[in-house]
C-alpha cells in the first residue's frame, strides 16, 4: 500500500525531472513509489552471493522487498550525486550498481543511466575492503568511492563547507560529498536510523530524495524510564520511534512524504521542497 502526504498543491514541471508529462506532486509520487514490473524479480547474482555471506556472518539483512523497491525508486530518480549510508559488506550497493551498470559478467552491455558520483559510507574498515572489491568488479572506480568516516562527521563537514563557500566559487575547496546531493539512501540499525535521517535531510539538495525504512513500531506497555537509569531495549525502541515521529512532523511542514508498506518493512520516501528556504 502507498500512502502519500502532500504538503503543497504544486504542479511539477516536466514531471519533476522524470521526463513525464506535467503532473501534480501526488501523481508524481504515485508513479515514483510504485513497483517497476519491467525489472527482474530475482536478486542480482552478486547481491545474492553477498546475502549468503551475511547470513553466515550473522549480519542484519534488509528484507528483499525493501531492497527491490529501493532499486525501483532509485531507477526513476535522475540523481546527479547519490549517497548510500551504511554500506555493510555491499549488499544494497550491489543492487544499486547492478541497476546502474548491469551484470559485469555480461558482454556487450548497453550504457545505462547512472549518477555522476556514488558515495558509500561505511566506517568499518574491514567492510570497506569488501566493498572496494565490489566496486572494482563493476569497473565503477571512476565515480564510486567509499568514505570510512562516521556519517555525523561527514555531514558536519559538508554543512561547514556549504557555509564557508557560499560567496566563493565551487572550486575553491572540494566538498566532502559531491554536490548537489539528489539521492540519499539509509541502511542502518534501528538505533542509528533517525539521527542519520535528520543529518541526511540537512544536506539534501532542493528537490532531492531521502529513502529510509521506518523504525520498528513499539508494541505492548513499556514503563517510563527512571531518572539516571539506562534505557532498556524496549524503552530505546520507544524513544527512537518518538524521535522518528518528531522528525516526520518537522519534514511534513514544508516537504513531501510517501510511505510504501512492504513485506517486513515500511519504506519512507521524503522529497525536499524545491525551495531553498
User: For this structure, what is the CATH class?
Assistant: Alpha Beta
Order of strands, main sheet, comes to 1-9-10-8-7-4-5-6
Helix content: 25-40%
Q: Helical stretch count?
A: 9
Classify the fold: give the CATH topology: Rossmann fold
Gyration radius, in Å: 19 Å
The residue-averaged pLDDT reads 86
Shape: globular
| Cα distance spanning the termini | 32 Å
Low-confidence stretches: 7-15
SSE arrangement, N to C: EEHEHHHEHEHEHEHEHEE
**Portion in beta strands:** 15-25%
Q: How many beta-strand elements?
A: 10
- Alpha-beta content class: alpha/beta
The name of the CATH architecture is: 3-Layer(aba) Sandwich
Instruction: Tell me about the largest β-sheet.
Output: 8 strands, mixed
CATH superfamily: Vaccinia Virus protein VP39
Q: How many domains make up the coordinates?
A: 1
Amino acid at each position: 500500500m502507498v500512502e502519500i502526504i502532500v504538503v503543497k498543491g504544486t504542479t511539477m514541471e516536466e514531471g519533476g525531472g522524470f521526463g513525464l508529462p506535467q503532473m501534480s506532486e501526488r501523481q508524481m509520487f504515485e508513479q515514483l513509489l510504485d513497483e517497476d514490473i519491467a525489472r527482474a524479480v530475482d536478486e542480482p547474482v552478486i547481491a545474492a552471493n553477498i546475502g549468503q555471506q551475511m547470513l553466515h556472518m550473522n549480519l542484519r539483512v534488509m528484507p528483499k522487498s525493501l531492497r527491490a523497491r529501493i532499486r525501483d525508486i532509485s531507477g526513476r530518480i535522475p540523481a546527479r550525486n547519490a549517497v548510500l549510508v551504511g554500506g555493510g559488506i555491499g549488499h544494497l550497493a550491489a543492487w544499486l550498481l547492478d541497476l546502474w551498470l548491469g551484470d559485469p559478467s555480461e558482454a556487450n552491455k548497453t550504457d545505462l543511466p547512472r549518477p555522476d558520483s556514488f558515495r558509500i559510507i561505511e566506517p568499518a574498515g574491514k567492510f570497506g575492503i569488501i566493498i572496494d572489491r565490489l566496486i572494482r568488479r563493476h569497473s565503477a572506480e571512476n565515480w564510486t568511492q567509499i568514505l570510512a568516516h562516521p556519517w555525523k562527521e561527514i555531514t558536519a563537514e559538508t554543512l561547514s563547507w556549504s557555509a564557508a563557500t557560499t560567496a566563493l566559487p565551487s572550486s575553491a575547496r572540494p566538498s566532502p560529498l559531491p554536490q548537489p546531493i539528489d539521492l540519499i539512501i539509509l541502511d542502518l540499525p534501528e538505533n542509528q536510523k533517525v539521527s542519520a535521517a535528520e543529518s541526511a535531510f540537512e544536506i539534501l539538495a532542493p528537490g532531492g530524495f531521502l529513502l529510509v525504512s521506518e523504525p520498528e513500531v513499539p508494541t505492548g506497555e513499556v514503563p517510563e524510564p527512571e531518572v539516571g537509569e539506562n534505557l532498556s531495549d524496549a524503552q530505546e525502541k520507544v524513544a527512537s520511534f518518538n524521535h522518528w515521529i518528531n522528525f516526520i512532523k518537522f519534514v511534513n511542514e514544508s516537504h513531501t512524504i510517501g510511505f510504501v508498506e512492504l513485506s517486513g518493512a515500511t519504506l519512507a520516501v521524503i522529497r525536499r521542497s524545491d525551495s531553498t528556504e
